Structures are given as structure tokens and as C-alpha cells.
Amino acid sequence: MPNDHQKAEPLLKVEGLKQYFRINKNFTVKAVDGVDFVIYPGETYGLVGESGSGKSTIGRSVIRLYDPTAGKITFNGMDISGRLSKGTNDKLRTQMQMIFQDPMESLNPRKKIGDIIGEGLDIHHSYKSSRDREDKIKAMLEKVGLSPEHATRYPHQFSGGQRQRVGIARALIMNPRLIIADECISALDVSIQAQVVNLMKDIQEETGTAYLFIAHDLSMVKYISDRIGVLHLGHLLETGTTEEIFDHPVHPYTKSLLSAIPAPNPQVEKKRKALTYDYKTSGIDYSQGTNHLVEGTHYVKCTDEEFEKWL
User: Is pTM, for the whole model, over 0.85?
Assistant: First the structure.
């Protein structure tokens, strides 16, 4: 059954997205190869898969840090897949923001925290006076659990978790409709990860912002996501609600991913058997796949024969 978010029109619709990188005249990397998914207003869509599967590339293509090779991306009623007009570009830059993976690499070490957070306000002239700008920055610092006095400090004076909060504040200050969180917790300690994810959930409840949450950590994705997409070798193999993916995985790659999650109970962990999956020997051809509806909103990309065999 569709959840409450899905009664609305999709905020983001990605259709047949391809992102290829030409290395030389003989070799092209197909980082993302024909991916389709939607994100509804106010929901969190988790994108999971192993390193090199194309998760971050999808995020960067959607926000147009990369020019998509093919496919259509519709955001808030605007087609953002081709050349962007100035008006469309301005709307995209205010309504969609990104939180990057490494909180130190993504912050300018020569700028004070207040100027880093206020950069979007400066570019788009989103304040009436310097006092108004200052008030917005201070309010945003408090919202992410930092002190207004931190505005005058530099990134190296903060811990990893605090720096990631600065990254979240920088994304939130433009009041975006969608935030792409590109493995924004993977560089943090486990206890800090929980704090940052809880902060993101609280902000979502307050502002109604949607998230594209890209991550390795399946337990964290399960905690924060309304729906999940499983990515492998640039193909979206399976997508559905969190319950559908975790309770009724269909694709063998999804099953192998879930079987690798360690159990907190030592007795259960002793008996846990991790399933192996090797695409080369699996006999599965991703390029031949068609979408099959399993139940509700649960889609699996595979051929008819494979679908029958797995079910």
C-alpha cells in the first residue's frame, strides 16, 4: 500500500538515468545505467549498495554536479535533465541541497563557520540586512545543536560530528525541498552517527524536507528510510518500502546484502550464515531486466524466468 507521502505528486522523478564516463577512446565506465525511482515530499528514500555501485554518482547527477548522459530528471515540476535556464538553475540551487561525505573536505578551512553557513544566503541575496543574515545563521546553528558563538570559529576547531552539523546547517539554511545526504555519516563514530541521524529526522519532522539518503550502513538506512532502493553495478535491482525490502527481499543480491548484517545477539550471530553473490557466475543479466511488481510498491528488476525462479 502507498504510504501517506505517496498520495502527493512525486517531488523528484528519475527516469532511465544513465551516467557514463569516457576514460579513453576504447573504454567507457557505465557508472549508472538506466535507473528509475521517485521521491515524494517529506519522505526519506534510502539508496544502498556496495562501494562503486553508483550511489554517489546518482546523487551528483540529480543535483547536476554531473551532466547526465541520458534519462530524464524532474524535480518539483521542473525538467532538470538538459541545459538549465538561469531561472531553473536558481530554483534548483535553492530548493535542492547536498550534505557531503567528508565534513572536513567539504568545508573551506579559511572561512569562518558563519560565512560557510551563510554562503547560500549571500549568493542568492536571501536576507534583508546584515542583521537579518546574522540572525538566520545563529538560528540555524541552534537548530543543529551548535552555539551561536561558534559562528566566528574555523572548521579545524570542531570535531567530526560538529563539522557534519555545520554541513547540515549549510544545506538547511536555504529551506530546500530535497536534501541529498551522500554517505554523510560514514566518516563519523557510531555514537555520533546516531546523533546526526536523529537530528536529520527531527529536522524532517519540523520542516517537511525530503531526503535522498545514500549509505552503506543497512541498519542506519532501515532506521531513517521510508523506502529503499538497492543498487549494484549501476543498476537499481529492487525498490520498495523498508518493511518490504527487509522482510521480503526477492533479488539474490539484496538477500546477500541483508545476510551480511551482524546480529547484536552473540547466540544468533554464531549461527548467522552470510549468503554469497557473484554477478559473473549468477547467470543474471541486468541489461535484460524488466520491472516486476511483487506487492504494494515493491519492484524487482529481472527477467520473467528469474522472477519465477526466485519466487
Answer: yes
